[in-house]
Amino acid sequence: MARVLIRNLNKIFNEVHAVKDVNLEIRDREFVVLVGPSGCGKTTTLRMVAGLETITSGEVLIGDTIVNELPPMDRDIAMVFQNYALYPHMSVYDNMAFGLKMRRFARAEIEQRVREAAGILGIENLLQRKPRQLSGGQRQRVALGRALVRHPQVFLFDEPLSNLDAKLRVQMRVELKKIHDRLGTTAIYVTHDQVEAMTLGDRVVVMKDGIVQQVGEPLDLYNAPANRFVAGFIGSPAMNFADVGLAVQEGAMLALADGIRLKLPPAIAERLRSHVGRQVTLGIRPEDLRVGPGNGADGCDFPAIVEVVERLGAQILLDVKVGSGTMVAAVEPSVKANVREQLRLAFDAERLHFFDRASGNAI
Amino acid sequence: MIEGAKWRRWVYFYIPLSAFILWLLFPFYWMLVTSVRPDRELYRPWMAPNYAPFWTAHPTLEHITDLLTGTLFIRWMANTLFIAVISTLISLFCGILAGYALARLKFRFAGALGTGIFITYLVPQTLLFIPLANIIRNFQLGDSPWALILTYPTFLIPFCTWLLMGYFKAIPRELEECARIDGATRWKAMLYIIIPIAVPGILSAGIFAFTLSWNEFIYALVFLSSAEQKTVSVGVTSELVRGDVFYWGQLMAGALLGSIPVAFIYSFFVEYYVAGLTGSVKG
Description:
heterodimer, A: alpha+beta, Rossmann fold, CATH 2.40.50.140, 2 domains, 6-stranded mixed beta sheet, 5-stranded antiparallel beta sheet, 9 helices, elongated, B: mainly alpha, MetI-like fold, 14 helices, globular
């Protein structure tokens, strides 16, 4: 077990700058998730840690060793691939034993480790089968088992659950979490699914265009996104955004836009003082909106017209028109709302997020 | 399968297919019949009253025994087998390495090299044998099996390289990456992972190469001169056609026996062969 340190990591493919100055410390025993849209450089970063991609500049340390020049086999890592990458001509047992055989472990040791990993994953009865005789979920378990038997310093996961159907994915997610809690091996996990990132990660790294946007614990990212991209990426349904102007009238700060006129509480007004007279982006999460008038004095509500009602069971999603824009509100399932109905959406002013319009950074 | 009425199936499927098979198999049938037909029937004029070209009432093995005892046929078979096996092995060895390198390794001029290899395959043998004959003479390899063992790979290696390159490209890259993380060097990953998976491709390249060298005619005709060095295709046609006399019975017996090994290999490996050409790798 070891920490992984990434210093000023860069990757340039021909003309494309895929990873830009990434700095990251993954602590010993930590489960860190790299998340972002496709092409954001998360997989490339992982592959550079694995040694499958050369490093253009910067350093990767595993434990206290700089591994830049080490071949993958000497980095003491194990990796799980999206398409499982099981060796089709070998049985499940041989697939799992391959890494140990290559490292010249004694036969008894190999046997014992494979049985142990198979026990953890519940695949003891599949050991003699060939990969093509397995279902998707079983293949995924074998791929995990192949990584487990190695007892590596670091686990690397490259979207390991993406090829599974939705139900199985949730199930395997829980299992992965349990296995990590049990083994405590340092893990780096790449995914484009923010739910996976939030549920699995001790810390989550959000990337976009090769640049790290924010690193933090899942709830920190949710509650205090560093910029508009993170705010929109984390959380489902995504955060609502509206461009508003800030103005001061009669000593109170107002956020004004088409159909919105909010009087901001003093604490928030203080934060926004330097942006008065300029356009900023207001963000509010769908689950922070509720139907009904605001609690009077603060005036934290605005009128909306219902366009679509999505009844999900546990909650209702209201797609509403606010001024000239649209928003989504996730409300209690008991709410009665009809299409084209006019209602007021209320929220707590502390739950508002503000972003600089030009830079996108949180204010 | 063709849907619809029975007659449609006959018109569109069975009849055309049967005609096609008859057309293809007829020469083999002719070969078989001729090789067991006694001489007095073979050289009977076509207007003779009991002329029956498509079968014989008195089958005989005399041509076959003549061929095996009266000529060097067994020697020719052994020569051909030796030459075909060695040149196939050489070509497969080079083809696997070159195909792998072109499919997987990143190096300068990889694309140009691949195209270059392909172009060498396009130059017709009928032109190449002239300069090759010169080279063979300079190396004093004329009239020895090595003349063919070393020249056959000139067209077999490009062929094997291209077929295997396509096959290697179809194998997911992750398999190899995974093996390398698992502790295998590039060599070991190739040996334990890529080559076993590519067995169907390697077998079909091998079968093709074997057949091409078994049937090869021009180089064998030009580079070999003494009777005991000849291959089947050259031996049969040059030793059993003397002046304008065709020993039809022995000729056909030679052709028949000469095609048995190839037919045997194809029937034995047909499943691998089809899998190799359609290139299916399941992960």
